[in-house]
Amino acid sequence: MRLDELTRGDFPILQRIVNGHPLVYLDSGASSQKPRSVLEAMNRYYERSHANVHRSIHTLGEEATELYEVARDAVQRFIGAPSREEVVFTRGTTDGLGLIAETIGRTLGKGDEIVVTELEHHSNLIPWQLVAKDRGAVLKAVPILADGTLDLAALDCLLSPHTRVVAFTHVSNVVGTITPVAEIVRKARAVGALTVVDGAQAAPHLRLDMSALGCDFYVLSAHKMLGPTGIGVMYGRRAVLDRFEPGRGGSEMIKEVWIDHAQWNDLPWRFEPGTPPIAEAVGLTAAIEYLEKLGMDRVAEHERALTRQTQEGLARIPGVTVYGPPAGVDRGAVVSFAVDGLHPHDVAALLDAEGIAVRAGHHCAMPLMRRLGVVGTSRATFSVFNSPDEVSLLLTTVAGLRSAL
Amino acid sequence: MSGVTPSASSGLYSDVIRDRWRRPRHRGDLPGANAVAEDVNPLCGDRVRMMLSIAPEGRISEARFIGDSCAICTASADVVADLVSGRTRNEAAALEVGDVLAVLQAEIRPTRMRCATLPLSVLALALNGNAKR
Predict the structure, then answer these.
(1) How far apart are CA A35 and CA A12, in angstroms?
(2) Nearest-CA residue of chain B relative to A402?
């Protein structure tokens, strides 16, 4: 049985009729929909077990703490992290990248160099711009080649003993490029630089193994992988986390406090100030269990087939341009395209009139848009519940767009 | 591949918007413009440049725009250029969103409202910038 046939009934929102048509949701790259098990887990938590975690010495407090820490174990398993102390909960990918930039940023000085890439989402660019400005560091970007892959020869030229951080995406949210994480990590480590990987688009789609990737930091968001909004994960290699002062202060991240100083808590709580997103952690556990039940290899295979169908189908429509790596090169579950003579926002609006939800615009990657020579693109992204029939509907609708406006 | 023409699109895009998107009257460069401004819509990256020729007594003799913009934004810019042509600087500055929407005859959704209002805010920039000189 195909994955969409197996999962479709689990997503209540897919019953929606939008503008008179059954919803075709092709915007999971922005935020995925949630299976019933996630919604029920969060509801059950709020109805039965909610209390604050860690310091509540009563039954509900214990239950909430247990559920929250179980989520950490689930994440550790899901991303293949060597230990649970390396799994820090954040509010999302942007929050995680900001936390890392602030934390590392404090150790940077004038002339230190930060390397990013032209593929980056603003969330993995702006925090580094802020840090560079604050510390007098220099920000450099690895260019992309015409096929949307990174120019690794250029990376070799950019790396130097001054390079302190290499921050890059695992899967491009615009063109779907899958970057060679392990290879980049090796190169960066050879010059003594830390590596920070934006895994927002990779986590819902690929089997992750932190040990194999070898990066120092890896961040992701629950809401793009069938989980709730408001929670994300920052994985940090223990040897690296131990070296850094906490990025942000508050309760929970301390052991003992005096007026003028404090002793930090152990990992991972040292990086988790304040009351965490507890219900969201419960939802994330359910999302991970859902994905694990399907099997991430099967998820990747299903989404790869839909991506290929879209890529090849769109390329056959006259006046349609498809961006990113050519067919045959593996990519994330993302296809960006342009329709001749139509603005991406109008493409999205016309598709929405048919119940088809796609993203349009600069996708928070303006430097990449500039590189592609466009203001924006229209983007279809896929999840476990999407079907080949939905892709066919997208293709026939796109084929009719040019006469629609 | 044979296409399906979206059916509900007539509600999204009025005839005025379609017409002005296909055949804008005031699109193009305006050499000798003495009030010029440009801005972007941060939501989508759309860029609109408004160019005005204002006579010494303060009347706008001609207005043109250049835009990397969607149908709604392009149509709106064209309407704004239409409405300010021949008006005084003060009359142009008093132009409101409602005036533009009335001409567009479309129900602009909240998510697209910034597309319709960008040309107006660029107009305001052009008028203010010129006033300072």
Answers:
(1) 7
(2) B5
